[in-house]
Design brief:
- It is a single chain.
- With about 220 residues, this protein is of the alpha+beta class.
- The protein has helices at about 1-30, 85-120, 120-160, 160-165, 175-215, and strands spanning about 35, 50, 55-60, 65-70, 70-75, 170.
- It has a single domain, classed as Up-down Bundle (Butyryl-CoA Dehydrogenase, subunit A, domain 3).
- About 70% of the residues lie in helices and about 15% in strands.
- It has a 4-stranded antiparallel sheet with strand order 3-2-1-6. A two-stranded antiparallel ribbon has the order 4-5.
- Helix 1 runs antiparallel to helix 2 (about 85-120), helix 2 packs antiparallel against helix 3 (about 120-160) and helix 3 runs antiparallel to helix 5 (about 175-215).
- The longest helix has about 40 residues, at about 175-215.
- About 30% of the residues are buried.
């Protein structure tokens, strides 16, 4: 029983640490959203493709994505793809929720460590609930980002004609995948702590039964 408890809390600790690492990498990298522009016969020195993170946009042609199709110049500014107020609101929600989840994860990891050393079912259950709450923040941030990006893509498709869209491929990047993985690990860490709390509770009942039997 003691060995099983040790394995469970160790797994929970490692899972929580990996979750923090993946979320930190996701927040700090610029591959949340990728736009690949494959315009034929493009011989210019600049790359037409771009990728973006939570804090900045890496554009191939500076501020604009420049499509030269049928000798016509089509420019669109990414900050104008959505209503400005809605865009700023959604962006603020994302950049608040995800860093907040990252900070809460650090506190949750410390709380989980103390609870594991104390072998208290109540503390372990509280730690598990706290970690699951962190996962809720992460899930909310990622969901809002996906909603924001989908709305931007819908607006882009409305502005640009279908024949011009042939040269543009839009996809989510590996930074978003890291955020999803972090969320999954947060849930796993919370469930492992709940399992540890249950093991501790069963062990307490067993020890109480043994003590009563010896009287």
């Amino acid at each position: 029983m003691i060995i099983l408890y040790g394995l469970v809390v160790l797994s929970a600790g490692l899972t929580g640490l990996l979750s923090f690492t993946f979320l930190a990498l996701a927040i700090g990298t610029d591959y949340w959203y990728i736009i690949d522009v494959n315009k034929p016969n493009h011989t210019g020195p600049n790359d037409l493709s771009s990728h973006s993170g939570l804090w900045r946009i890496i554009e191939g042609l500076g501020i604009y994505i420049h499509l030269l199709i049928n000798h016509k110049h089509i420019f669109f500014l990414r900050s104008n793809l959505l209503n400005l107020d809605l865009q700023l609101c959604l962006h603020k929600v994302v950049v608040i929720l995800l860093p907040l989840s990252l900070v809460l994860l650090v506190l949750g990891w410390i709380f989980g460590l103390v609870s594991s050393l104390a072998c208290s079912p109540k503390l372990l259950s509280a730690s598990a609930s706290y970690i699951l709450l962190c996962g809720l923040f992460t899930l909310s941030g990622v969901s809002v980002y996906i909603k924001y990006s989908n709305q931007a893509m819908e607006e882009f498709q409305r502005i640009v004609s279908p024949e011009n869209l042939v040269f543009v491929h839009v996809s989510f990047g590996w930074s978003l995948a890291l955020a999803w993985l972090s969320y999954s690990l947060e849930v796993a860490a919370g469930l492992l702590l709940l399992l540890a709390a249950r093991i501790t509770q069963i062990k307490g009942h067993y020890d109480s039964g043994v003590a009563i039997a010896m009287l």
